[in-house]
Amino acid sequence: MTNNSSVTIFILLGLTQDPQEQKLVFSVFLIFYGGTFVGNSLIMVTIKFSQTLGSPMYFFLFYLSLVDFCFSTSIAPRLLVDSLSAKTIISYNECMTQVFALHLFGCMEIFILILMAADRYVAICKPLHYTTIMRRQVCVILIVFAWMGSVIHASTQIVLLSQLPFCGPSLIDHYCCDLQPLLKLACMDTYMINLLMVFNSGAICLSTFLILMISYIVILRSLRNHSAEGRKKALSTCTSHILVVILMFVPCIFMYTRPPTTFPVDKMVAVFYTIGTPFLNPLIYTLRNAEVKNAMRKLWNVKMMMK
């Protein structure tokens, strides 16, 4: 990875410099990361081995759980290690790799949420054509294109960052490498590069959020023509999706649709969507989804019988 600056390492200041608070950070985020690992792994295993969860919605949910786990893993292990370390040094290449992973999995999550909204739209608004439109081959192709789009997005961010010269100081007032903290360290006018980054990240987040919310409004309005039982089931599923969309997009819009400035609340907002959202998503999809809970119980019963 080409480095156009004299800086070869960065120092992450983390969430706090107080040793006692760092221990608390380690304990809290170890619980969150452990919950993320267990929750998302449980959903992936359940969908993989359950015969009742073969619909496109659960196909996309499998990948959402996979991406949530990877998204959190790109940040949490480093945060846990740094919270116990006296010096939190990260090399230039490691920093760029972290930015790439953060935006790769973050963008992939956005694409999957779009696909899940499209799936619900077809299922509720065009039920007679659902099995034809949302065939397994189509779903696989959509996931492949989503990965390709995510790689392009993340690569674009790295190309833009690689143009920045960093002359020092190399102190990043954050617990991970990301766009805004790095732009603040650049020793050049970053107006144009920030504009491109806002277009590549912020505009995509904002426009996608608006499109998703409009699509769910259309879906919910169409439920008036369904039976009471059908409305209840569809409303439960859509409510879970809408909640996850809000949890993901609102912090991202706050972080990536503004000039290159940093605020004290930035770290907490970043914690929410990098650590909190991947932890909460499995809870939202299992607690509000009877099919997933029943499939988990059946798999658990089969496991106990095998013993």
Helix run count: 11
Q: For the terminal residues, how far apart are their CA atoms?
A: 51 Å
Largest sheet: 3 strands, mixed
Which parts are unreliable, with pLDDT below 50 for 5 consecutive residues or more? none
Structural class: mainly alpha
Q: Which word captures the global form?
A: globular
Number of strands: 3
Portion of residues within helices:
over 70%
Rg over CA atoms? 21 Å
State which percent range the strand residues make up.
under 5%
Strand order of the largest sheet: 2-1-3
Order of H and E elements: EHHHEHHHEHHHHH
Query: Which whole number gives the mean pLDDT?
Result: 85
Would you kindly provide a written description of the structure presented here, covering whatever features stand out?
The structure is a single chain. The protein has helices at 19-49, 56-73, 76-82, 92-125, 130-133, 136-162, 179-185, 191-222, 228-256, 266-287, 290-306; strands spanning 9-12, 89-91, 171-172. With 307 residues, it is an all-alpha fold. It is globular. The protein starts with 8 loop residues before the first strand and ends with a helix. The protein has a three-stranded mixed beta sheet with strand order 2-1-3. The mean pLDDT is 85.
Short description:
The mean pLDDT is 85. The protein has 307 residues and is mainly α.
Q: What order do the helices and strands come in, and which of them pair?
A:
Blueprint: E1 9-12, H1 19-49, H2 56-73, H3 76-82, E2 89-91, H4 92-125, H5 130-133, H6 136-162, E3 171-172, H7 179-185, H8 191-222, H9 228-256, H10 266-287, H11 290-306
Parallel strand pairs: 1-3
Antiparallel strand pairs: 1-2
Helix pairs in contact: 1-2, 1-3, 1-10, 1-11, 2-4, 2-10, 4-6, 4-8, 4-9, 6-8, 8-9, 9-10
